[in-house]
Write a structure and sequence with these properties.
This protein is α+β, with helices and mostly antiparallel strands. Bound molecules: guanosine-5'-triphosphate. It catalyses: 2 GTP = 3',3'-c-di-GMP + 2 diphosphate.
Length: 364
């Protein structure tokens, strides 16, 4: 029975807490919505019985204020569910809470215990509004708190606390404010660090470390995203392979081979960096994706590039050598075929270029 009901209960709580959002992401929006909804729940669960008891006891001021807060928080949950506007919702939580706390301080609260609730202000302000705004709000609260304590008789406050207790209330509120700010600062620092690490990891997972070009994964993602952004016509996929690269490695060493790949990558970037996406597709193979371009002008462009590379001197000054490139080009329309099929076709053209003696271009 428990096993049957537990997931259902969990789903209801999850749905309530995230107000219908999945809550899977770690975004600030999800975090704030969760906090506001939980706060509304706790607020209602606490103020409602408190208000009812105060009403039964005939303490109408306390009953009216706590029941108003319970109604407000219920409204706030519904408002947030409908609008996801957590900015407004967090204000609806915090500022009435300020008013309630001022009232409890001013009146002394039930049996003169009103001050015990003010400590929730600091963490709630930090949770809801972050470090900077939270600090301003806590400072504002502290100033009003001190003003209430400084002028009790003149403004007719009904609390009855000794000067010593009032001092300690201020000090302990300050300590809690400081701890909450420090906690929020550490949290923000950790999130910042995590975001940077995750960005770096994301970039590394899509980048070839030798040439700094996109790797196969990064390139496939870009070609697929391009489809989503509806640039669907007249795309070109160019696959380029260095001819007899094994000989370069064998003759000049692996390091020189690496330098050739780096220099070649820079040439690719210089020629197509602005208009196309360039990747290191495999060992000595590169894939260039040229989106939304006139296909007829691509082949001459590639031909110019082939000739340029042919004329460049690679290796040491006293021991230079030349390399040549073979190319396969496929015209690619997202509406007519899949990315894989287009890449296969470019690959087939490259194969033909290799069989045709290398240092040439084959295309659709
Ligand atoms: N220096 C270096 N060599 C690499 C790298 N990745 C792959 N290679 C080398 O690239 C060479 C590819 O050789 P093959 O596949 O036989 O092709 P090829 O010699 O270029 O001949 P064709 O492609 O048929 O013209 C191999 O010797 C690999 O070791 C790399 O990152 N650095």
């Amino acid at each position: 029975m428990f096993k049957l009901l537990a997931p259902r209960f969990k789903a209801i709580i999850h749905n309530y807490a995230f107000g219908g959002l999945s809550g899977e992401d770690l975004s600030e929006q999800s975090r704030r919505i969760l906090l506001i909804n939980l706060f509304c729940l706790v607020g209602v669960l606490f103020t409602l019985p408190h208000g009812i008891l105060a009403f039964i006891d005939g303490d109408m001021m306390i009953a009216a204020s706590t029941l108003s807060i319970a109604s407000l928080y219920t409204f706030n949950h519904i408002y947030l569910r409908l609008t996801f506007n957590y900015e407004v919702s967090s204000n609806i939580i915090l500022y009435p809470l300020f008013m309630l706390m001022f009232f409890l301080l001013y009146s002394g609260g039930v049996a003169q215990t009103g001050f015990v609730w003010i400590y929730c202000i600091a963490p709630v302000a930090m949770f809801l509004h972050g470090l900077k705004r939270g600090l301003i709000e806590i400072t504002f609260f502290l100033i009003i708190l001190i003003l209430i304590f400084l002028f009790p008789n003149e403004i007719g406050a009904t609390y009855n606390w000794s000067a010593e207790l009032k001092k300690r209330i201020v000090y302990s509120f300050l300590v809690l404010g400081f701890l909450s700010a420090f906690y929020e600062y550490s949290r923000m620092k950790s999130i910042h660090l995590l975001r940077n690490i995750s960005k770096d990891l994301e970039k590394a997972s899509k980048t070839d470390p030798l040439t700094n070009l996109l790797n196969r994964r990064g390139m496939l993602e870009i070609i697929r995203d391009n489809n989503a952004s509806k640039k669907i016509f007249d795309n070109a996929i160019v696959i380029c392979d260095v001819d007899f690269f094994k000989k370069v490695n064998d003759q000049y060493g692996h390091n020189v081979g690496d330098e050739v790949l780096i220099k070649l990558s820079n040439e690719f970037k210089e020629t197509w960096g602005k208009d196309a996406h360039i990747s290191r597709w495999g060992g000595e193979e590169f894939l260039i994706f040229i989106p939304s371009s006139l296909f007829d002008i691509i082949q001459p462009e590639v031909e110019r590039f082939r000739k340029r590379i042919e004329s460049i001197r690679f290796g040491a000054l006293d021991n230079p050598f030349h390399i040549t490139l073979s190319f396969g080009i496929a015209r690619f329309d997202y509406q007519k075929e899949t990315v894989d099929a287009a890449i296969n076709r470019a690959d087939k053209h490259l194969y033909k270029a290799k069989n045709h003696g290398r240092n040439c271009i084959f295309s659709d």
